[in-house]
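Our preliminary data section would be incomplete without showing what the modeling component actually yields. Below, a chain of 280 amino acids is followed by its predicted structure, encoded as tokens that our downstream tools consume directly.
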Amino acid sequence: MKAKLYVGSLIVLVLSACSESQDGFSPVPENSAIVGGIDTNKNDTVSNYVVLIYDNPTKTYCTGTLIKRNLILTAAHCVGEKASDLSLAFGINPLTGNYVLRKAYKTATHDKYKKLSSKDRNDLGLISMKETAPLNYRPVELADASFPLKKGQVFTAAGYGRISGKRSTPTDTQGSGQLRNVDLTINQFSQDETQFYIDQKNGKGICSGDSGGPALMRYQGKDYVVGVASAVSWTVPDEVKADERNQYIQNKDVCKEKSIYMNVKSFRVWIDTESKKLLN
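Predicted structure:
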């Protein structure tokens, strides 16, 4: 995980998804671990879209989505200091050594990105490659302003993150590095609709390492990325005394409360504009 923010009793952690639904929507995979999900296998559709992003200086990783043959959409906080620091591993379990490696060429982050904020985060980034993605990978469509995204719709979250937000030991990886997916439901939108939120109290959702990963949805026969994983947040109850806060947080599974996604349709103009710059 990359950053932690205390706002009163609210804490935001920056993270380091099939059944048919109404209006022709459905989650993407044919079977539905991220937290509470399943391991993605090479036959799942989602495995064709997702890549692990490794920041060599910090030894941290995130998740990204292929939106063109040589362009990846992710979170701004996943981009790092410079493109040459980033390794892009295509594979469902890259940490075992089974992957195809690509190097980042250029990067872009949203100019209004707010790292230490629970709202107006603008947490979006792009990574271009000189080489194209492996042949078995293909770009996914981007939701635009006309995409009918609503509260209550189900999508598929995918990422290489932990299966628990509770760290039992400093070196406990909690299953990270394996691509997983889980079906989640949009709980609500921010007032300006640039973000949407997921209730993770049922034990399903995103966690550290899933940052930048896609919210995927199938609509009228095509797969779309409708969101980008940004952070998890939770609250410390008011009754927890000041000298007990650190112990409370240490014992808490921080990925079992709420998560924040960037709403792709609200950022489509920025994505298209910056994509052209990176690919020219």
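The chain has a mean pLDDT of 82. The chain is about 5% helix and 40% strand. Preliminary results of this kind motivate Aim 1 of the renewal.
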